[in-house]
Design brief:
mainly alpha, Ribosomal Protein L15, Chain: K, domain 2
């Protein structure tokens, strides 16, 4: 019986040795497991936070700012000077500065406009003035003044000898009215 046990042990050891993996053979090129490295760039270098100014990761440590700098459209414009009065507002105004260059609604003169063809059929005995133009329905209101422009239409003619008061004329209107024999006030031409 002792013989049987030894033979069975030998058979079991033979089976286990057959199942065991073969020993690793080193290739002839000299490559070993210790020489293996990851592909270049596949493992980027770790960013070390809070290691001085040379690292570029000081102050907020890559987290960005909070508040005004985070908001869409936040921050100050290029003309911001830290709260002091900006350069454009520190400059003094020029002497004789014209307000007409600014807001149209407050400082410029607005004229109610009449074209020459609208005076067709005007009664020569009635003086052409802002009041008479409103009374005849040529204008609704006189704004800051009345200006006559040289707009003419075919088939329309100017009456001879019209008289004007408190009215401004364009250059073309003045010429046409002078040719028609109108009595024009002196030095009221504008533009």
């Amino acid at each position: 019986m002792a013989e049987k046990k030894t033979t069975s042990k030998k058979a079991a050891s033979a089976k286990s040795s057959a199942k065991a993996a073969p020993a690793i053979a080193t290739p002839s090129s000299g490559m070993t497991l210790g020489a293996l490295k990851p592909a270049k760039g596949s493992w980027p270098k770790r960013q070390r936070i809070g290691r001085g100014h040379g690292s570029g990761m000081v102050k907020t440590g890559g987290e960005g700012g909070k508040g005004q700098t985070v908001r869409s459209g936040g921050g100050k414009g290029p003309a911001f000077e830290g709260g002091q009065t900006p350069w454009a507002r520190r400059l003094p105004h020029k002497r004789g500065y014209s307000q007409k260059a600014r807001d149209i609604g407050h400082f410029r003169t607005r004229y109610a406009v009449v074209n020459l063809h609208q005076l067709d059929g005007w009664d020569v005995s009635v003086e052409v003035s802002p009041e008479s133009l409103v009374a005849r329905g040529v204008l609704k209101n006189t704004e800051d003044g009345v200006k006559i422009l040289g707009g003419a239409r075919t088939g329309k003619s100017l009456p001879q000898g019209l008289k004007f008061r408190d009215i401004v004329f364009s250059a073309s209107a003045r010429e046409a009215l002078a040719a028609a024999g109108a009595q024009l006030p002196a030095e009221t031409t504008e533009g």
